[in-house]
Design goal:
The protein has 134 residues and is mostly helical. It is built from six helices and two strands; from the N terminus they run ββαααααα. A hairpin with a 5-residue loop joins β1 and β2. This is Aminoglycoside phosphotransferase domain-containing protein.
């Protein structure tokens, strides 16, 4: 549980969706992404698109260090952002038919990211960008 300075509970971190066969860094990433979404009062899709455009998104160094600590070579920040988004969206849709059927949620969090990520990756490939935050 996360608490405010006055001791009131502000959030509950739920690791029950962690996947022992998945990339452990995605659990850290999704926690950071959703914390930012809650703090800014926005949805995940627009935040992920902004992260894809940033040369060194917030938390990139932490995520690179977490990847090295958890084993393996660090993946670049855009790839992590998309993998974290994909994991969260797929689990959200599996848990709740309401999200899957909501056209506004789909437009903001699915379609926008799919279209934007394709553009961002094409631009990144042309620019030779591959930032890991290391």
């Amino acid at each position: 549980m996360l608490t405010r300075p006055d001791g009131r509970i502000s959030a509950v971190v739920d690791w029950c969706e962690a996947d022992e066969h998945g990339l452990p860094v995605l659990d850290v990433l999704v926690f950071l992404q959703l914390s930012q979404v809650i703090a800014d009062g926005e949805e995940l899709g627009p935040m992920v698109l902004r992260r894809l455009e940033q040369p060194l998104p917030p938390g990139a160094q932490l995520l690179a260090r977490a990847q090295r600590t958890l084993g393996g070579e660090p993946l670049d920040s855009p790839t992590l952002a998309v993998l974290g988004w994909l994991q969260h969206v797929s689990k959200t849709m599996a848990k709740s038919r309401e999200y899957a059927a909501n056209p506004v949620w789909n437009r903001r969090n699915l379609r926008a990211v799919v279209r934007g990520a394709a553009t961002s990756y094409a631009a990144a490939g042309q620019a030779g960008r591959g930032h890991t935050g290391a």
